């Protein structure tokens, strides 16, 4: 059988601050694609990074570099990939955009891109995330319940979870997630990697090296634009 023949096509969308983007953000896409392909049921045709809107800082204590910089770094980070791209739609909006709306926009874009060939072959869009996002569904007031339901019901999740975490238990304890558990695909990360944007920013403030943690073009961009020094 030819590769991908008869498999359901998938576009993976990852939403986040990417402040700055790290190798781990990119690695999540590779982990997810490998796991989905191993099932023999899916074919991942595209990965999309969507940096959060600047207005998000009103909802959190995070200090964000401007959306222009974060998108530019995401673009640079994906130059070496033939299937992962950065999308600037979210950062260009006038206000913060809920994740479910970013999924809706991505679905509309995917339909326009792929429907010209065969409408039955249009990929479905799934939200790629870490286990921490899945667990954040339980934080009171953090998520709009209708949005949570729409995300898992209409799109689905591909969750990268680290060794030692128990997403199955968390899904079991949530009525919402249990109702749509067949739309949640769990990927275990066996090669543990603790890279985070927070630690990268800390290293930069201390003039420490971030080589091999962040893509080289992104390191150069950070230096040229004097980001994350204060």
Low-confidence stretches: none
Any idea what the shape is? globular
Biggest sheet statistics: 6 strands, parallel
Structural class: alpha/beta
Write up this protein.
The chain has helices at residues 23-38, 67-77, 89-92, 99-114, 131-136, 145-155, 167-173, 175-179, 197-205, 216-224; strands at 8-16, 42-51, 84-86, 124-130, 157-162, 184-189. By secondary structure, the protein is of the alpha/beta class. It has a six-stranded parallel beta sheet. Helix 1 (23-38) links the parallel strand 1 (8-16) and strand 2 (42-51). The longest helix is centred in the N-terminal third of the chain and has 16 residues, at 23-38. The chain is globular. The protein starts with 7 loop residues before the first strand and ends in a 6-residue tail after the last helix. The mean pLDDT is 91.
Task: Describe the structure in brief.
The chain is of the alpha/beta class. It contains ten helices and six strands, in the order βαβαβααβααβααβαα.
Please specify the SSE layout and strand pairing.
Layout: E1 8-16, H1 23-38, E2 42-51, H2 67-77, E3 84-86, H3 89-92, H4 99-114, E4 124-130, H5 131-136, H6 145-155, E5 157-162, H7 167-173, H8 175-179, E6 184-189, H9 197-205, H10 216-224
Parallel strand pairs: 1-2, 1-4, 2-3, 4-5, 5-6
Helix pairs in contact: 2-10
Keywords:
230 residues; 18% strand; single chain; alpha/beta
């Amino acid at each position: 059988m030819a590769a991908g023949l008869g498999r359901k096509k998938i576009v993976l969308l990852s939403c986040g601050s990417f402040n700055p983007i790290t190798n781990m953000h990119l690695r999540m896409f590779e982990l997810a694609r490998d796991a989905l392909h191993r099932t023999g049921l899916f074919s991942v045709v595209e990965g999309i990074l969507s940096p959060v809107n600047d207005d998000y800082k009103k909802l959190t204590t995070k200090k964000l570099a401007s959306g222009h910089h974060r998108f530019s770094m995401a673009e640079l980070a994906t130059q070496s990939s033939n299937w992962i791209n950065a999308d600037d739609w979210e950062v260009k909006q006038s206000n913060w955009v809920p994740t479910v709306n970013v999924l809706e926009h991505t679905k509309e874009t995917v339909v326009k891109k792929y429907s010209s060939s065969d409408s039955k072959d249009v990929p479905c869009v799934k939200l790629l995330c870490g286990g921490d996002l899945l667990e954040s569904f339980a934080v009171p007031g953090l998520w709009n319940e209708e949005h949570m339901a729409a995300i898992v019901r209409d799109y689905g999740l591909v969750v990268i979870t680290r060794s030692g975490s128990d997403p199955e238990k968390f899904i079991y304890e949530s009525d919402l997630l249990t109702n749509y558990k067949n739309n949640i695909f769990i990927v275990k990360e066996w090669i543990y990697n603790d890279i985070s944007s927070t630690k990268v920013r800390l290293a930069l403030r201390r003039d420490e090296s971030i080589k091999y943690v962040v893509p080289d073009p992104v390191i150069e961009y950070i230096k040229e634009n004097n980001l994350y020094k204060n």
